[in-house]
Amino acid sequence: MTPEYRLVEDAHRTLGLWSIRRTFTFAFSAAVVLLVAAWFLLSFLLGAPSPAEPEPLETRDRLELSKLVFALVAGVGALGALVIAYRRQRAGEAAWGRVQAHVEYGQGVEMLGHDKAAVRLGGLSSLGRLAQDHPDYRQTVTDVVCSYLRMPFPAPQAGDERRSEQPDIAQDPELQVRLTAQRLLKRHLTTTDLDGRPLTYWDGVHLDLTGAQLIDFDFTDCRPSSATFTNAHFSGPARFDLARFSAAAQFGGARFSRYGGFSETQFGGPAVFDGACFSGGCGFDEARFGEVAWFREAQFGGDASFVGAQFAGPAWFDGARFGGGSGFDEVRFDGVAWFREAQFGGDTTFAEVRFGGDAGFVGARFGEVAWFGGAHFSGNARFGGTRFVSEIDFGDATASHPNDDHAWPSPWHAQAVTADTAQLIRES
């Protein structure tokens, strides 16, 4: 897929030129202004004529005036000819540039499909330069690189020396090519609030890495428009810390063989982690979810930390499995937060959590300590059918209204403090 170009009638805008009508209007107006200015300047230098009755022009004077008019017309025509010649040159250069870019693109794609890794590395370098010099090719080149990373590749096993920080191209050349492709995406999608959008940053790019095999993936500080990592397999640590997704971020069914880092990540659109598997733990500390967040049936094999995260929309953790400890301390749920039939294998803390909407733990199971100290429930709390292997603690927890819509686990209940505030009390 190659970039689309503007229509012919809009070509002058693409080239940064004025339209023909506007160019000639400006040229003629400038010529008239210069002629009038020259007339007044000559009159000032030679002195104004006496206000006597003007005499009829002689034949010689009429000829001189005609020469002046013809000179003016010729000057405007010459200026127009120069403008047309310049526009033709610019259009020719632009057309030649497009032809050259198309040729370079074709060569880069062909090199990327070569059977030798060194040639494929050259193809990636060529495509990267092309997209840097020609913004119209940036999404196209990104699509090609993503397509390459979606091609089948055996996942390195834990402890495999091929996963070293500097892989040996002689022993595993394909791994080197794939790491180079990942670094290309990293380089051109990285920007921060401090660097003021570097020239290497490609704005508005979408990633499609569905089912891709990604090795030691580093996406720190990257800012794509949207990204799809559905069913992707991350071998080694995967870092998305401080990344920003303007639109949807799809991680449904993704597998993280080691740690998955999403600290201070911002999700501007829906964040989908349904069925994702974090084998080595994950961190979503201080993450910001702008819309709905889906973690249904997600599996957290190690510790899972969401400390200080904010959910502006609904958060769904129905059926999630937490094998290690899970921390939701100081999390803010502005919408509903559902943990129906979720299983918490290790110690679980919801200290100082703010539930802005309904909080549902119906059918959930807590295998170890469950701590809700200082939590506040603005909506209805649903703990019907929740199972606790150890004792649950609601010390200093509050609810916005002590009505019968709440379903608290025994032996806790809400006791009114004011007309619209209740304190969680443990029955003796």
From TrEMBL:
Record SUPFAM superfamilies: Pentapeptide repeat-like
Keyword set, alphabetical order: Membrane, Transmembrane, Transmembrane helix
Xref: InterPro entries: 5peptide_repeat
One Pfam family this sequence matches: Pentapeptide_3
Listed transmembrane segments: 23-48, 68-86
Protein name: Pentapeptide repeat-containing protein
Taxonomic source organism: Actinomadura livida
